[in-house]
Specification:
The chain has 96 residues and is of the alpha+beta class. It has four helices and three strands; from the N terminus they run ααβββαα. Strands 1-2-3 form a three-stranded antiparallel β-sheet, covered by helices on one side.
Amino acid sequence: MRKVYLLKNSRFGIYRQYPKEISSARSTLYKSEEAVNARANRMNFQIRYPARLYIDGKCVQDMFPDWFEVLGTNLTGEVSTHKKRWWAENEIEILF
């Protein structure tokens, strides 16, 4: 995402595709009464990742309040991160 500026004034663009839960929560925030009032009054409003509504720099509504606490833990449990090499599994004998 660092070089997205190179696509400016071209026929290509970048769109972030979020999971269904996040995109529906962001849609709900966009249609919320606070967001509609902020747009009507020309106030600064943002929807930040994953789904937080900020109006004039203050968090007004958070759809996933424990999002970063959950992500800070090991979600995979005891899964081994050791990668097997393909040549170790498929040894080939060459006979001359």
